Amino acid sequence: MSPTFLAATTDKNLELVLRVLPAIVIILAASAVCGRLALWVKQPRVLGEMVAGVLLGPTLFGALFPEAQKAVFTPEVKPILYVLSTLGLTLFMFLVGVGLDRTAGNGRKDTKNASVLALSGIVPSLLLGAATGYLLHDRLSKPDVSSFQFALFLGGALSITAFPMLARILYERGLENSPLGRMTLLGASVDDAAAWCFLAVLSAMHTGAGLPHALRTIGLTVVFTVVMLTVVARLLRPMGERVERTGLFGFDQMYLVVGIVLLSGYFTDWIGIYSVFGGFVAGLAMPRNEAFRQALHSRMMDLVCVLFLPVFFTFSGLNTELGGVTGWAMIGPFLLILLSGFTGKYIGCALAMRGIGFTWRESWAVGALMNARGLMILIFINIGLAQGMINKDVFSMLVLVAVLTTAGAVPLYRLALPERIERRMSPAEGTVDKEVSSSASTGAGSVHA
Predict the structure, then answer these.
(1) Vertex 376: Cα angle to 47 and 187 (nearest 5)
(2) Residue 326: what pLDDT?
(3) How far is CA 160 from CA 200, 306, 387, 440, in A?
(4) What DSSP letter does each residue of 399-449 carry, written as one string?
C-alpha cells in the first residue's frame, strides 16, 4: 500500500470527520432549543426534538438557507447519520425493554389486557384508514397503485403508535412501571410490531415478492421473540444474579450486553421488521434484577437520549417536506385522513381500556397516548414513498397527521388525568384512589370537567 494512497485515504477520512461533527453540533443545538421550548409550552421534550428534526430538513432550514443546508447535510454525511440514528433508536428501545418491570402485578393479566389494547388500537384505525383510502384513491393515489393496496397502506400508516415517543412520555412522568404505563407500553409494542409485519406483507404485494416471503418474515419474528424471552433470558440470569450479589457491573458484562443488542437489531433488520424491535426484545430478555437494571440505565440512558436520539429525529426530518398540502383542494382529504386516524386510536383504545376495568379518566388518558404517532409513522411512510406506494402529497399529509396527533397527546392526557389526580396514582396499584375512581367512573363527561 503506497504512502500516497494512505495519505489520500487519511485526507478523505479527516474531511468526512470535519463534515460530520458540525452537523452533529447543529443537531444537538437545535434539539436543545426546541426541547426547551416544548417544555415551556407544556409539551414533552421529545416533541420538541421531533420538530427540531423536521425544521432542520427542507421544511425550514432547507427553504430559507438551501445552500447552507446542503453544505451541512451533504450526501456523505447522511449515511453516517443514518447509522447513528439506527443505533441510537435501537439502544433506547433496549433500555425501555430493560426498564419495563414484567414481574410486577399480574403478568398474565397484563399481557392479555395489553393484547386487547393493541387490537383496539390497530383494528379501528386500520378499517377507518382503509375506508378513507378507498374514497380518496382516485384523487390521491399514484396511477399504478391499486385501490386495494392504497387503502391498506393508508390504514396501516394510521394504525402506527409512536412507541419510542410514548415511552419517553411515560418515563418523563414516572409512569413506566405503573400498570397503566406497562400495559400501554406492551400494547404499543404489539401494535407497532403488527404494523411492521403488515408493511412487510404490503411490500411483498407491491414488489411482487409474494406472500411466502411475508409469512417467512412474520414466522421468523415469532421465533426470534420466543427464543430471546426463553433461552437467552435463562442464559443471562446468572449474570444478573452476580451483579445483584456483588454490586459490580464491569466492562465484560457491558460488552456482552451491547453485543446482544446489536445482534438482535441486526437480525430483526435482516428479516424486515426494523432494528427497534430487536432492541426492545433484547431489553425484555435481560435479567430483571434491580441492581442490574439500574446499572444499565445509569451508564447508557443519558448518552442515548442526548446524542443518539436527536440524530434519529433529524435524519427522519431530512426526508420530510411539508409541501404537499397546498391549496384548498387538499384540505378536505387531509381533514378526512386526520379524523380517521384520530378517531380510530382515541375512541378505540379508550373504550377497550374502559372494558378492561380502568376508569374513564385513565381510559381517555391511554387513548390520548396511543394516538401519538411521532416519527414511527414517518419511517413507515418513507418506506412507502421509496417503494412508490404513495406520492409526495399523501406523504406530506401523513407527516402533518403525525405532528398534530403527537402534539395533541399530552394535552388530551392532561385533560383526562390532571396533575392533582395523577399524583395520587400509585405505581404499585396503578390506579387512582377510591374517591377519584368513583368520581371518574360516572361517565365520559367527567373527563372534560
Answers:
(1) 95
(2) 59
(3) 14, 25, 19, 29
(4) HHHHHHHHHHHHHHHHHHS-HHHHTT--TTT-S--HHHHHHHTT-GGGGG-
- In the block, which residue shows the cell 450526501? 75
Predicted model pTM:
0.73
Positions in the chain whose pLDDT score sits under 50: 5-6, 105, 426, 428-449
**In angstroms, rounded to a whole number, what is the distance separating the alpha carbons of residues 330 and 436?**
44
Distance CA 406, CA 245 (A): 43
| DSSP-derived secondary structure letter, 91 | H
| pLDDT, position 421 | 63
Reference 80, options 164, 6, 165, 13; nearest CA is 13
Cα atoms in the 13 Å half-sphere on the side-chain side of 327: 4
CA distances from residue 349 to 81, 272, 400 in whole angstroms, order as listed: 35, 27, 22
DSSP three-state, residue 38: helix
Q: What is the pLDDT of residue 2?
A: 56
Contact 154, 133 (CB under 8 A): yes
> Inter-axis angle of helices 147-158 and 107-140, to 10 degrees?
140
The terminus-to-terminus CA distance of the chain in angstroms comes to 75
Yes or no: say if 305 and 93 are a contact pair by the CB < 8 Å rule: no
**Grid coordinates given for 105:** 402485578
Tally of CA atoms within 13 A in the half-sphere of 396 that contains its CB:
15
CA separation for the pair 221, 268 (Å, rounded): 7
